[in-house]
Design goal:
The structure is a single chain. The protein contains 11 helices and 22 strands. By secondary structure, the protein is of the alpha+beta class. Strands 1, 2, 8, 9, 10, 11 and 22 form a 7-stranded mixed β-sheet that branches. Strands 14-15-13-16 form a 4-stranded antiparallel β-sheet. Helix 10 packs across helix 11.
Length: about 450
């Protein structure tokens, strides 16, 4: 069945029930959204958070990411944690239930493995204790706005179409969905999008053999598979173990018609999801035949969705650039720090890494979360205001937590003052972040 171009159906006008009135409405329950919701609630705001999945965590849990990236600045002698605050609290809660252990160094960086189910539990408890009302299975579909203010977001669930009205809105959707529906400024590099990945976990793995395998040796194994005719789009990737017998793989590279699929194109993403599962099957065969420790491996599970690295990026009051990333930029309104390299999953079998100087980090300004066009709408997460190159660094988990925490505090301060987000004193946001244990880069880590 085909649809003619520009063919439309007329729908009758409708009245949408206001399901909740809130001080702050957070859209998206990933790392940024969780942090934004908790931070605003702990500042005294009544918070409603809308999440389309049946659990919190976003990429951490729906994609089955498996490790927290962006926590550390790295030099040959040590790891220095450059993200604290709520992210640090979540890590401590994970460790308390055996859901996170010690960081793992690889290449010129390090990340922290975690248990997927433990992450879901910790985030549930965190938001419940903060008093955030979480509405799962809720997809935002429209925005009511006028004269630089968002008045309500409409969402749909099995109950139908409903609305949340609020004084402040924080778009943590990852795709800047609210910004786009409100007519806000954004960019999307459809010709140069980073490729997504289908994450997988393999069971019955000899994890002692895996631990002894270096990243270059793994690549050599997979290059032999390619030489023998296996169609593997990527031979350099991350494989780590969070417990004996289990391996977590970030190794696939999913294309549709030779290109990175647009996350905004439902048909392309439907094809990409299927292609990702086929790639996991192919990599399982390659690992069984060519990689030590995987002879009896099987696919334990895959992420429930593809891991999308890039889609819309807002054009905010400050657009962070690749030059500022590599130059370890400093800002008066800094609300987070990042030492993650510019990690670009572009065409070809290798990932492109552009590293900061050892031990260096840059700051993320509050202005990269704000748009001149809106008084009460901010963003946090991978859709923050940055160029394609800079977004390849700041999009990772720890920085999403940090940006979300700052956005939540800023929203609460704007409400308390009855003011625009643009009138909130950035130093007040920074003082509250520091009081909550955040690292802002003003003193040694």
């Amino acid at each position: 069945m085909t649809t003619k171009p520009n063919e439309y159906l007329e729908e009758p006008a409708r009245r949408t029930a206001v399901y909740r009135e809130a001080d702050v409405c957070v859209i998206g329950g990933g790392a940024a959204g969780v942090a934004a919701g908790v931070a605003a609630a702990r500042s005294g705001a009544r918070v409603v958070l809308l999440e389309r999945a049946g659990f919190l965590g976003g990429t951490l849990t729906t994609v089955s990411l498996g490790s927290i990236c962006g926590l550390y600045a790295v030099d040959p002698a040590r790891l220095v944690q450059v993200v604290g605050g709520l992210c640090g609290e979540i890590i401590e809660r994970l460790r308390a239930i055996g859901g996170a252990h010690e960081p793992v160094r690889w290449l010129q960086t390090a990340s922290l493995p975690y248990d997927l189910f433990s992450m879901k539990l910790v985030l549930d408890e965190l938001l419940e204790q903060a008093g955030v009302e979480v509405l799962l299975h809720s997809q935002v579909v429209d925005v009511q706005h006028a004269h630089g203010r968002v008045h309500a977001v409409m969402f749909e669930s099995k109950q139908g179409r409903m609305a949340v009205r609020a004084g402040q809105f924080i778009d943590c959707s990852g795709d800047a969905d609210v910004v786009a529906r409100a007519g806000g400024p954004f960019e999307i590099a459809l010709e140069d999008l980073q490729f997504p990945t289908a994450m997988a976990r393999f069971g019955d793995v000899d994890t002692d053999a895996l631990q002894a395998l270096t990243r270059p040796e793994l690549r050599q194994c997979l290059e032999r598979a390619v030489e023998d005719g296996m169609d593997l789009p990527r031979t350099a990737g991350g494989v780590f173990s969070e417990r004996p017998g289990l391996a977590h793989l970030n190794i696939t590279k999913v294309a549709v018609d030779g290109r990175s699929p647009s996350p905004l194109d439902v048909a392309a993403m439907s094809r990409a999801e299927r292609a990702g599962r086929r790639q996991v099957r192919d990599y399982l065969q390659a690992f069984r035949r060519y990689v030590p420790g995987f002879a009896r491996a099987y696919v334990l599970d895959t992420g429930s969705v593809l891991g999308v690295r890039e889609s819309r990026r807002i054009v905010g009051r400050h657009v962070l650039t690749g030059e500022q990333v590599l130059g370890a930029a400093r800002f008066d309104d800094a609300i987070a720090c990042c030492a993650w390299p510019m990690e670009d999953h572009a065409a070809g079998r290798a990932t492109q890494w552009i590293w900061l100087e050892p031990g260096a980090y840059f700051q993320i300004p509050l202005r990269s979360l704000l748009m001149a066009q809106f008084d009460n709408l901010s963003v946090a997460g991978r859709c923050a205001s940055a160029t394609h190159a800079a977004q390849a660094s700041l999009r990772v988990t720890a920085q999403c937590f940090a940006m979300g925490e700052a956005a939540g505090i800023a929203a609460a301060l704007a409400l308390q003052a009855g003011a625009s987000l643009h009138d909130v004193d950035a130093q007040s946001v920074r003082r509250q972040l520091a009081a909550r244990g955040a690292f802002l880069g003003d003193t040694p880590a």
